[in-house]
Design brief:
The structure holds two protein chains of two kinds.
Chain A (H helix, E strand, L loop, with lengths): L1 E6 L20 E5 L5 E4 L5 H5 L8 E5 L5 H4 L14 E6 L7 H6 L17 E6 L3 E5 L2 E7 L7 E6 L5 E5 L22 H4 L4 E5 L18 H11 L3 E5 L7 H15 L4 E2 L7 E3 L1
Parallel strand pairs in A: 3-4, 4-5, 5-6, 10-11, 11-12, 12-13
Antiparallel strand pairs in A: 1-2, 1-14, 2-3, 7-8, 8-9, 9-10
Chain B lengths: L6 H11 L5 E4 L5 E4 L1 H7 L3 H4 L4 H5 L2 E4 L12 H8 L3 E9 L5 E11 L5 E10 L1
Antiparallel strand pairs in B: 1-2, 1-6, 3-4, 4-5, 5-6
Classes of the chains: A alpha/beta, B alpha+beta.
Chain lengths: 280, 129
């Protein structure tokens, strides 16, 4: 599979020269299988440039939302394929205890917050509730699990027919409440079974170790926790992702290098830079 | 690959680990999947040493009797009632672990139900009276 990072920023889109290298678009990752199956992971502002790469001949796109915080859905209304008559668009994501996925999304994708209502879109739009289960989308087997982040939030483990595995946990605080992290086995650590031995793990690394104590419970990880999570789960390659909007390119270079120095991961760490393409 | 615990159980364990009240967590089969340090004192067992225990095994660790000291059958204990009825149960009982002294405790057990009405197990709290 080919994996492209279209938006790696967390919380808030951050354009500007000091953010240009890591990128300012919010969470969006494109996945294309060898048989042509196209997945879009989250619909942050990075989905806008991704849309421009989708050929007119494409008949189906699946958008997998981890949760409905604004930085993960803000680009959805600007996803050009939604306005192609006849194109099948499937949106997968978690409902809540009281509202279905479609109703939750319509809170944003309807006036006055957005000028176009979902019901007016010309594409063939289908919503799928997802929490903790396995589904087949084209050539991919996709496992989802609820993970530790405020509100209903899932992570995804995407397996290709050639057994290559991508795990996507962009907003995740597995260390929440842990007296030491990591100290528990995988099955007792949020998201760890999704990430177990993945070829590529894209994981929340919003804060520095020094910043995390002031943001405990906000649903995100420090870079050190992220790299330790990668060690626990024995991934082959890890991409720190969902960068804090206050972190410049210079900050991120320094913080990621510092986290690597302190945690000494035994696997490859590749900073989450917008536009990076991985071939798995 | 062992199966992952649902996030609700993971968070329940994290919470129990940081509380001073004795807490036990069981899955839908009644298997004791976690108990915290204060509960270790009551059970006279350490979770790190026992790990998970099937319902029959952990229920046999202690005797439970009503206020008149009549034995309470396993299926009538609050945790098993919470599992079978899927609603909270609270009862004041006498309990004794091994040959230690009888303790007068209030036991409250409630089911753990996730989104989509997914039944996950039950949690039990001991309160010495």
């Amino acid at each position: 599979m080919q994996v492209t990072l279209w938006g790696t920023r967390g919380s808030l889109a951050t354009p500007g020269p000091e953010m240009a290298r890591y990128g300012g678009n919010t969470s969006c990752v494109g996945v294309i299988g060898r048989e042509g199956t196209m997945l879009v992971l989250d619909a942050g502002t990075g989905i806008h440039p991704l849309a421009a790469t989708i050929p007119e001949s494409t008949r189906r796109v699946d958008i997998l939302l981890t949760h409905l915080h604004m930085d993960h859905i803000q680009g959805l209304g600007f996803f050009a394929p939604l306005y192609r008559p006849g194109l099948e668009v499937h949106i997968w994501g978690p409902g809540s205890a009281t509202l279905r996925l479609q109703a939750r999304l319509m809170r944003y994708l309807s006036p006055p917050l957005f000028p176009v209502s979902l019901s007016e879109l010309p594409c063939v739009l289908t919503f799928h509730e997802i929490s903790s289960r396995d589904i087949d989308i084209g050539e991919f087997r996709v496992r989802s699990e609820l993970v530790c982040h405020p509100g209903p939030t899932v992570g995804y483990r995407i397996s290709a027919p050639d057994k290559r595995v991508l795990t996507y946990l962009p907003d995740h605080e597995p260390a929440l409440g842990a007296l030491r992290f990591p100290s528990l086995p995988r099955e007792w650590t949020s998201g760890a079974m999704l990430a177990a031995e993945a070829d590529l793990l894209i994981h929340d690394g919003q804060y520095s170790a020094a910043e995390y104590p002031g943001h405990c419970g906000w649903g995100h990880s420090s870079l050190n926790q992220t790299l330790d999570f990668g060690t626990l789960t024995e991934v082959k390659q890890l991409v720190p992702f969902h960068h804090d909007p206050d972190h410049t390119d210079t900050d991120l270079d320094r913080l990621i290098a510092q986290a690597i120095e302190e945690t000494k991961p035994g696997y490859q760490v590749t900073p989450g830079i917008e536009g990076t393409v991985f071939e798995l | 690959m062992s199966s992952p615990k649902p996030i609700q159980l993971i968070l329940a364990r994290q919470l129990a680990s940081s509380l001073a009240m004795p807490i036990l967590i069981v899955d839908t089969d009644g298997t004791l999947i976690f108990y915290n340090e204060p509960a270790e004192v009551i059970l006279d067992q350490r979770f790190d040493e026992t790990g998970e225990m099937p319902a029959d095994a952990w229920s046999a660790l202690f005797a439970v009797a009503d206020e008149a000291h009549n034995p309470i059958a396993q299926e009538d204990r609050p945790t098993m009632m919470a599992l079978s009825e899927r609603k909270p149960f609270s009862r004041t009982v006498w309990m004794r672990c091994g040959h230690r002294e009888w303790l007068h405790v209030s036991i409250t057990a409630f089911p753990l139900i996730g989104e989509g009405r997914q039944f996950l197990g039950a949690q039990m709290i001991f309160w010495e009276v």
